[in-house]
Recover the amino acids of this structure.
């Protein structure tokens, strides 16, 4: 009898969650307890990192500081050029009477070192709805696109990586603007490009960037590099794969992006520095 | 006194099991991580069947669903059914030698993993090789140790 109630209740929950978002508050409430467990499991690793940070000597810190300063100088110089390019781009688009989308804000989040499901590419970060994170936000790291927010809880959020087999991201080849879709392969170092025609102009080493189609990922962020594939002259389509640019299994910090949906006017000067256009 | 004490013990072992479930293991060891919560629940349902019921198992299942980011009710359903069978047969199971018990645990874990496999394919693209079934193996092999450990915790 009790079993019957339990089974009916489970099935009811499964169906409700499949059909609607109504159970989200319940999950948010219960997640307060489970999130504290997640932070508890993460604690030894983050503590270890903190202690290692404390123990780094003055000498190493100084060295690191100098190298970072130099790096920053180089990056700044490059950004100056990008700024000019950006403005030129806006002017050109204004000539074409085309709208231009700009302005992105980011939030730095840290990955919790916990293992949810080994066969699913989902990671947990330490920023949640308390910081305004919401589902379907793009997530980046310093090298490229990481994935998107899959589920936002009060104190943490789950991020689906671009390598998850259930994830697809609209991309374009940076060299010629060829549009296609990169689908996760289930392996942490591979993306599949299944929707390419046999005569597609794609070569090993091509950079794939987000195309901005689909409305979730802003355009222009690097996604991956096309792997080697056998060049065939006959009509058979080669299986094209790509390697993600972001270091999906090594990074602890990621950026959660808010892209403002308001279109920038062409005439007023820009206030935000674009974090865009890395190539 | 002993009453609240045993409740505390059940609760803390389940909390530890939940922590073990999300332990950051290396990518080689991670597929072997068994369903600790289910194993601990099975132990308590065999040891003190008058205290651990289907309702407890169901609530634990809900928490595990939230913990692992699965759809609500998956683990709850699995835990309720498995704990029901454990409670129904707990007299026979307690008499079994360890090998036979492990065989029963194997069947339980197989059932749980089969249901999870099915849920996964209902909701999303199923993409898993043999690695998906490894927790059954590790859970079965670990059962004798878990059993001894839990018994020493209970008797202390």
């Amino acid at each position: 009898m009790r079993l019957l109630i339990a089974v009916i209740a489970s099935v009811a929950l499964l169906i409700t969650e499949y059909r609607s978002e109504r159970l989200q508050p319940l999950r948010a409430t219960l997640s307060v307890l489970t999130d504290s467990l997640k932070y508890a499991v993460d604690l030894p690793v983050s503590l270890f990192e903190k202690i290692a940070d404390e123990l780094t000597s003055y000498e190493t810190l100084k060295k690191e500081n100098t190298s970072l300063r130099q790096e920053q100088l180089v990056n700044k110089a490059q950004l100056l050029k990008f700024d000019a390019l950006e403005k030129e781009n806006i002017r050109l688009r204004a000539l074409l009477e085309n709208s231009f989308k700009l302005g992105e804000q980011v939030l730095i989040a840290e990955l919790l070192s916990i293992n949810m499901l080994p066969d699913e590419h989902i990671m947990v970060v330490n920023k949640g709805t308390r910081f305004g994170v919401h589902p379907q936000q793009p997530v980046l790291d310093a090298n490229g696109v990481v994935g998107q927010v899959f589920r936002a809880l009060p104190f943490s959020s789950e991020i689906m990586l671009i390598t998850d087999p259930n994830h697809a991201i609209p991309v374009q080849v940076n060299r010629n603007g060829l549009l296609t879709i990169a689908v996760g392969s289930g392996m942490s170092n591979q993306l599949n490009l299944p929707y390419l025609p046999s005569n597609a102009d794609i070569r090993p080493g091509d950079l794939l960037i987000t195309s901005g189609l689909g409305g979730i990922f802003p355009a222009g962020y690097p996604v991956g590099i096309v792997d080697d594939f056998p060049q065939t002259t006959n009509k058979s389509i080669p299986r094209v794969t790509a390697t993600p640019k972001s270091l999906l299994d090594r990074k602890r910090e990621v950026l959660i992006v808010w892209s403002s949906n308001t279109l920038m006017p062409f005439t007023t000067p820009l206030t935000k520095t674009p974090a865009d256009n890395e190539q | 006194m002993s009453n609240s004490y045993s409740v505390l013990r059940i609760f803390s072992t389940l909390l530890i099991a939940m922590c073990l479930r999300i332990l950051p293991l290396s990518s080689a060891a991670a597929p072997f991580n068994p369903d600790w919560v289910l194993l601990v629940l099975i132990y308590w349902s065999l040891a003190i069947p008058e205290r651990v019921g289907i309702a407890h198992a169901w609530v634990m299942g809900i928490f595990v669903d939230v913990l692992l980011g699965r759809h609500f009710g998956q683990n709850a359903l699995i835990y309720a059914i498995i704990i029901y069978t454990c409670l129904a047969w707990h007299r026979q199971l307690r008499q079994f030698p360890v090998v036979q018990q492990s065989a029963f645990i194997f069947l339980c874990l197989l059932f749980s993993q089969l249901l999870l496999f099915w849920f996964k394919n209902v909701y999303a693209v199923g993409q898993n090789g043999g690695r998906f079934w490894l927790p059954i193996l590790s859970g079965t092999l670990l059962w004798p140790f878990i059993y001894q450990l839990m018994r020493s915790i209970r008797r202390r």
User: Anything to note?
Assistant: Helices of chain A lie at 2-19, 24-55, 58-95. Residues 2-55 of chain A form one domain. Chain A has two domains: 2-55, 103-263.
